[in-house]
Automatic annotation (TrEMBL):
It holds the Pfam family Acetyltransf_3. GO terms for molecular function: acyltransferase activity, transferring groups other than amino-acyl groups. It comes from Nocardioides agariphilus. This is GNAT family N-acetyltransferase. It comes from the Bacteria. Residues 16-183 form the N-acetyltransferase domain. Signal peptide: none annotated. PROSITE patterns: GNAT (PS51186).
């Protein structure tokens, strides 16, 4: 059973609808992710539609990729990768899980608080429905928009690694890791189950 199977879909917020991705989402995904201002900070380029369509045929990729819609139009995506927390062998079966999260938003929909709304709803589901212990995200230190969003969510900076991240154009950059524990989460009323 994947983590997606444990969540009540779609997640509906005041302005957004979040759902699991489908193969037919490839073109809309590629349309904004290929733009230089979006691709700048992403771990993988999406310039070629054929290769993006190939990724969307991979069930594991689709399991980690969520679609963010506004008024029926795809405006962004979320990344959710659930994994086991590290634990010593004697208590490994008692260790809860954690998730790495990420996001990308079409430039025409940025600056309106939509990314914060979507990520807040995802974090809420991570703790409320998936029962996760910890949620974390990483970014290049130069990606100010990303780490500011993490701080708005109440995530704390757990690490500042020096030149640990190789950027395709900028060379070696510092990297940040932010995290939030379930007991630290203070959900707001930005997500509600769909009827």
């Amino acid at each position: 059973m994947s983590s997606q199977d444990k969540v009540s879909w779609p997640i509906v917020t005041e302005r957004l609808r979040i759902r699991p991705s489908e193969e037919t989402d490839a073109a809309a995904f590629q349309a904004y992710r290929r733009l230089p201002e979006v691709a700048e900070w992403l771990p993988r380029l999406s310039e070629d539609l054929t290769s993006v369509e190939e990724r969307f045929r991979d069930e594991e990729f689709r399991t980690r990729t969520l679609v963010v819609e506004r008024d029926g139009q795809m405006v962004g995506d979320l990344y959710l990768s659930v994994s086991d927390c590290w634990a010593q062998a004697e208590v490994q079966d008692q260790a809860p899980q954690q998730a790495e999260i990420g996001w990308a938003l079409s430039p025409e929909h940025q600056g309106q608080g939509l990314a914060l709304e979507a990520v807040r709803a995802l974090v809420d589901r991570c703790f409320a429905e998936l029962g996760l212990h910890r949620v974390y995200a990483t970014c290049f230190s130069d990606n100010t928009g990303s780490w500011r969003l993490m701080e708005k969510l109440g995530m704390r900076r757990e690490s500042h690694a020096i030149k640990d991240s190789l950027h395709r154009d900028r060379g070696w950059l510092d990297g940040y890791t932010y995290a939030l524990l379930a007991e630290e989460w203070a959900p707001e009323t930005t997500s509600r189950p769909s009827p």
